[in-house]
């Protein structure tokens, strides 16, 4: 039987979209060239965090974090969900004032957060450098092991009975009413959802997506060394650089007792090779915040590529002009950059509401792909 919907991409965004459409009673096929939870999903930190770079980003990340908190009791131990909270670290007085401003925004939007002065921060995270001025703690931010969470959504969730997964299935083209695989097989469906990150640009070359390469390193086990996800307040600024290479302190306590260390961003490389100068720069930055870091044993480093849109917000909705006229029934869920895990569940809700014709109850306008339509016309 032909599915009602085809999902291209079995990462966390595609898995969430599949589960949400299946919950509407649709028969859903998920196609991926490799494996469930591969690509950017496997390369990231799995940090579920409320971000406030813009009102639209704050709304989407907060909505999705709440959905993750609702889903968490159903997940398995292997999905490693933990409500560890986030500490936004202020290194100096200027950043302390930025923390206060962030706290005000969060308070106005109902986000539970507390300001910690320097003494409270040292009591909370003794491993941090004593020179830190303070921090903002968002207590309900969480972490999850996204690859297995994607697998759960597709194969173990209550909606999984309506989902079929085909791995090793490379989509080469999208056409009205379906897709074509690399072997020539045509699969028909009323709806096609493109949610394969940077791979979407190969199918729809006019999509305004840019690759941002990132490095991560994981250490040996040091239980109790840190307790929260730790980020410097300069992270937001570095995350939105438009060119070159930038690094920022980002450390996560894994349930295994390991530390996951990030982060870097590069625009001038599509090579997945770990670049030692960039990795060294990232670790040197991290050591300014965690002085003990140079004494720890790092056991593996890797890279991944975030798919970024020009305005930092994902593209969620009808494909429009990006599909050269074949627009009926083709949808986008791409361009999440570093917030794919965080915003995956909300993305699925927004997309399903549009497909079901009930989007009036959910604000989707800031994320609609049509906002880049003028750029496509000029190109």
Overview of this protein structure:
By secondary structure, the protein is of the alpha/beta class. The chain has two domains: 5-45 and 146-209 and 311-378, FAD/NAD(P)-binding domain; 84-142 and 210-308, D-Amino Acid Oxidase, Chain A, domain 2 (2-Layer Sandwich), CATH 3.30.9.10. Helices cover 30% and strands 27% of the residues. The protein contains eleven helices and 19 strands. It has helices spanning 12-23, 39-43, 55-71, 93-108, 118-124, 146-155, 200-203, 235-239, 276-289, 340-356, 373-378; strands at 5-8, 28-32, 47-48, 86-90, 113-117, 134-138, 142-143, 163-167, 171-175, 178-181, 186-188, 191-194, 210-221, 229-232, 245-253, 258-266, 298-308, 315-318, 330-334. The strands form four sheets. An eight-stranded mixed sheet has the order 5-6-4-14-15-16-13-17. A six-stranded mixed sheet has the order 8-2-1-12-19-18, covered by helices on one side. A hairpin with a 2-residue loop joins β9 and β10 (178-181). The longest helix has 17 residues, at 55-71. The model has no long low-confidence stretch (mean pLDDT 93).
């Amino acid at each position: 039987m032909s599915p009602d919907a085809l999902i291209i991409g079995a990462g966390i965004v595609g898995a969430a979209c599949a589960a949400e459409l299946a919950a509407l009673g649709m028969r859903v096929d998920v196609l991926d060239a490799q494996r469930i939870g591969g690509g950017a999903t496997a390369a990231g930190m799995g940090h579920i965090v409320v971000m406030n770079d813009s009102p639209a980003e704050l709304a989407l990340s907060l909505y999705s974090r709440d959905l993750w908190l609702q889903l968490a009791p159903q997940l398995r131990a292997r999905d490693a969900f933990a409500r560890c909270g986030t500490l936004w670290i202020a290194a100096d007085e200027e950043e302390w004032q930025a923390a206060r401003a962030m706290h005000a925004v969060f308070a106005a939007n109902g986000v539970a957060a507390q300001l910690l002065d320097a003494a409270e921060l040292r009591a909370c995270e003794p491993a941090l450098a004593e020179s830190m001025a303070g921090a903002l703690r968002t207590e309900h931010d969480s972490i999850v092991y996204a690859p297995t969470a994607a697998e759960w959504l597709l194969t173990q969730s209550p909606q999984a009975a309506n989902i079929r997964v085909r791995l090793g299935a490379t989509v080469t083209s999208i056409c009205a009413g379906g897709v074509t695989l690399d072997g020539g097989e045509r699969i028909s469906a009323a709806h096609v959802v493109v949610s394969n990150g940077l791979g979407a640009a190969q199918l729809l070359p006019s999509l305004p997506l840019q690759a941002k390469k990132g490095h991560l390193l994981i250490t040996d086990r040091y239980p109790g060394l840190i307790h929260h996800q730790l980020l410097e307040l300069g992270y937001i600024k570095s995350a939105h650089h438009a060119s070159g290479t930038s690094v920022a302190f980002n450390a996560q306590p894994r349930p295994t007792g390991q530390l996951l260390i990030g982060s870097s961003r590069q625009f001038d490389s599509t090579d997945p090779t770990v670049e030692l100068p960039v990795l060294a720069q990232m670790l040197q930055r991290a050591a300014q915040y965690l002085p003990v870091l140079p004494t720890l044993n790092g056991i593996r480093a890797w890279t991944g590529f975030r798919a970024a849109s020009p305005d930092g917000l994902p593209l969620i909705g009808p494909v429009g002009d990006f599909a050269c006229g074949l627009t009926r029934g083709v949808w986008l869920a791409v361009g999440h950059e570093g917030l794919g895990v965080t915003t995956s569940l909300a993305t699925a809700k927004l997309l399903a509401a549009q497909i079901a014709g009930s989007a009036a109850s959910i604000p989707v306008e800031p994320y609609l792909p049509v906002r880049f339509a003028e750029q496509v016309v000029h190109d």
